[in-house]
Amino acid sequence: MALRLLMLGPPGAGKGTQAVQIARDHGVPKISTGDMLRDAVTSGSELGRQVKETVARGQLVSDDLIVELVRRRLADDDARGGFVLDGFPRTVAQAKALDGLLDGCPLTVVEIRVPDEELVRRVRGRRICESCGTTVSAFDGEPSEAQACKVCGGRLVQRSDDSETVVRDRLTVYWRETQPMIGYYESRETFRRVDGARSPKDVYAAIAEAVASVSGGR
């Protein structure tokens, strides 16, 4: 059965990294809202111009525009055999629109659940190299104590948006906006929740098991 997977998880849960790996292992594209918006603007299409003008005005891209971007992306040849969605849908309205686009095709939904305090610890411990941009995560020992980048030897610094206040604000927004959508999906037989407070390797194994349990009907 083709993998049609939606990944959910708060900032710092490792959702994006896990989505990339599982998409690669299944030979399907990872489709994210950010990538679609950038590609649309770069394309110079009429839809892309609408997106560019909306962003230039400092406004949020409407549900209608986002859904149309997703519709076109899912129609591409590489996505017809499956996909991993990251960052869409973000609202119940978008989730209902996605159901319409899938037209009855099953969607596996995996939520990575991590306690807020653990997410704060991870993001506060994250460092980036001033020279090459390599990110050192809280899983790689104790980055707060690391002195130099293992790739180039550059100095590791904390990103300005990785402060505890910013992280907690982002989590508040995430739960306020996303909890209704989680509720929309979690009663479905194709919904799974995995413990994201473990190592990336263990979380990936749990996601793979969750995907297999859905495709196997267990």
Could you give a short description of this structure?
This protein has helices spanning 15-26, 33-43, 46-56, 63-74, 92-102, 116-125, 164-185, 200-215, and strands spanning 3-8, 30-32, 82-86, 108-113, 127-129, 135-136, 156-157, 191-195.
List keywords for this structure.
single chain; 218 residues; alpha/beta; Rossmann fold; three-stranded antiparallel β-sheet; 48% helix; globular
Structural class: alpha/beta
Supply the number of structural domains. 1
Q: What integer is the average pLDDT?
A: 88
- The strands making up the biggest β-sheet line up spatially as 2-3-1-4-8
The overall strand count is: 8
Uncertain parts? none
User: Which CATH-level-2 architecture?
Assistant: 3-Layer(aba) Sandwich
Strand content range: 5-15%
- The H-level CATH homologous superfamily, spelled out, is P-loop containing nucleotide triphosphate hydrolases
Label the overall shape. Answer: globular
Radius of gyration computed on alpha carbons: 18 Å
- How many alpha or pi helices? 8
State the order of secondary-structure elements, H for helix, E for strand: EHEHHHEHEHEEEHEH
CATH T-level fold name = Rossmann fold
Q: What can be said about the biggest beta sheet?
A: 5 strands, parallel
Distance between the termini: 14 Å
- Helix % is 40-55%
